[in-house]
Structures are given as structure tokens and as C-alpha cells.
Specification:
alpha+beta, globular, peroxidase activity
Amino acid sequence: MATNDHTKSSNEDLGKSKISRRDLLKMAGIGGAGLLLGGAGIGALFKSNEDGSAAASGAPADGYHEEIPFYGAHQAGITTPAQDFVLFASFDLTTTSIDEVRELFKQWTAASATMAKGQMIGEDNEKLSVPPSDTGEAAGLQPSKTTLTFGVGPSFFDARFGLAGKKPAELADLPAFNGDALREEWVGGDLGVQVCANDMQVAFRAIRNLTRIARGKAALRWTQEGFQRTGGSDPSGGTARNLMGFKDGTGNPDVKDDAKMNEVVWSQAGDGQSWLVGGSYMIVRRIRIRVEVWDRSTLGDQEATFGRHRASGAPLGSKDEFDKIDLDRKDEKGKPVIPMGAHVRVAKEDGVQILRRSYSYSSGLDKRTGQFDAGLLFIAYNRSLAKQFIPMQTRLASSDALNEYIEHNGSAVFACFPGVKEGGYIGDTLL
């Protein structure tokens, strides 16, 4: 980051004299600190150095220069800390040749590894006589923590490719849940691709290039963009809020706990198909929020619906976001502090866990109603659909107080491959 000479010299002087932030405040006085720095405030002295490293304040990296490796034991984008944006794409295969599917996966792997590095795809980007090998809109942009995560849907294992015997027993379209209002334009797909990045143009470029490479072999079925607050707007890295104003994902298991991830997320030997070991089941649900109705609800009703305080994210009756949820606690009248239909109660009652990776979405107006088409692109990962997500969602669909304000209109499920070794390709354990 460029600095002017005055700020640069101030940083150097500060480092030599080892003046602390507190000392500087004492010298200048709180009211005069802004004047001392020409209106920039104390923070100007504690920003990143010119080489991009964190300065005295320990400020986080900008989130754009960092590269997340594509290759590894597990696919990136599952336990990776959530980036600012997502673009999810569902594809239908148009080829009936398993050899062409294999070739597509190899091409996608090479392109994905290149895009994760923030580099241009191919060698034909300066030849005037041929179409460019990269669509070009991310030329010169940083990697932006781009991850690409791939999976196959139940329909991938139909009669086209001779793979029916390798279909995991659990991989099937989700059952119809109470209150579902699914719309064909947001359901299913042979292939699912989740692209996450800290820049939306970078994410779009990834899906666009995958679609271009797939021409003649696969075609887009549906897409959905999503967002959360950016890292820059919340340097503390707190839990993101959904469009209802509440923190979303507080109860996630610790992704740094390998034993917990093996229990909750990663498919294990003995679970079923050996090709899926180290992979996971991805659930995608497009959940519209009736924001106009929600906005007319009192804060008390909203907190009772979630079972949490909106400001802090703490369970009702507690002060901290991560305080233990006490479902047995009663108020002075003997009523449960967390109401019986509260979202956190219904979701937690039998102790089942999944790994949520959800984003908000806004897709303009719903022309049928003239209201916002906005809500939650719910993405989650688990080791077992039958033992984790399906029983949890069955309970939520039947008794969650949130159902008054939401509508599930999109749904898909995919078996996500294990990670790719360098020299291999996505799906090589299956194909």
C-alpha cells in the first residue's frame, strides 16, 4: 500500500522510539490525535507496511493476495474459512461418453489449479487469430483466496456412464420436507461446483471459464450468487449475519479439530464407496426470506424465533455468542428461556452437527409478489445425509418457528470428491 512521505516518516520514527499507541494518546490527547495525523486518525500509523506485512496493530492481511492451494488431501472450500462471496453452479452433462467426462474433469482440474493461483489459463491470450484461452476479466487481479469445490449429484450415476454400481447408497435427491416450495429452475444437477473468493468478479470468472471449457460436454443448469459482509468491513472476523440480522453459523464445529471433522464432515473407510473417502456430502438449499414480513416483527418476536439475542448472538438468557445453549433453563414463571419452537432449540435437540457454509443472496424482485427475492443460499457439508442433515431438516421443517418467515425453493445434493493430488484430477478416485 502506498503511503505519503509524512506517514512513512511517522511510521519510521514510531518504530525507532518504540512509542506505543497508549503513549501517543497521552502525548497528543484523544481530541488532538486526528489533527496530529492530518485527519487520518491514530489508525493511519498502524496500517500495513508497504510490503503488505502487518504493522504494529497486528491488522489482518487484506484477503486478496493470499492463495489457497487447489491440491491437497481434501478439497479446499469446505473447511476453508468462508470468503466474502460465493457463486454456486449446477451443471448437466450433455455427453454420454465416460471418456469425455474424464477429459472434462482433467481440463477443469488444470484450469482450477491455475485460477486458484490468480493466473491466466492457457497460452492463447495474446494471439489475434484465435479465441483467448482465458475470458480475461480477472487479468491482473489477485488470487483473492479462490477455492473451487466439485461434486457429483445422484443423476450422475444413471445409465449413461455405467457407474451405477459406484453410487453411494446415501446419494439421492432429498426427501420432500414439510413446507418445501421447490422450483425446477433451482433443483438438482449432474455436477455441482462451489466457487468462493474475496472478489465477486474473480468468482464469476472461474465459473465462466469452467462453462466455456465444458462446451459440448456439459451445460449450466442453474447458478446462484451469494455474499456476506466483507473481511474489510469486519476486521475482527466475527460471525457473519444473515439478512434477518442474526449471526449465522455460531454453532459450527471446530474445523481445526481433525477428529471432529472426521466425525462430522469427511467420509471414512467403511461408510460406503471407497472412492468417496476423504470427501463429503454437500447440501445446497435456496431459502427465500420473507423480509417484508420479518421487518414488521418486534425484536422480542425475532429473538424468540431464533432463540438468540440479535445484538450479541448469545443464546437467550446468556451474554456471550458462544455460551453453552441451556435448553433446560426456565424463567421466573417456569417457562423455557429458549422457547420450544426456537430455531436453536429445534436444531440442537438431538445433538446432530453439520458444517454450515451459508451466504446471503439478493436476486432483485420476485415478479410474482413484487417483493424482494432475497434470502439464504444454505450450503452445508456432512459425512452422512441419512444420519445428519435429513433428520435435522425433518425436525426443522415440522416445528421451527422460522418457517413462518422462509420458503425453501431450491434444493440439490452432491457427493464431493476427496482432494486431488498433483498429477491427478478431480474425480480420479471414481473414474
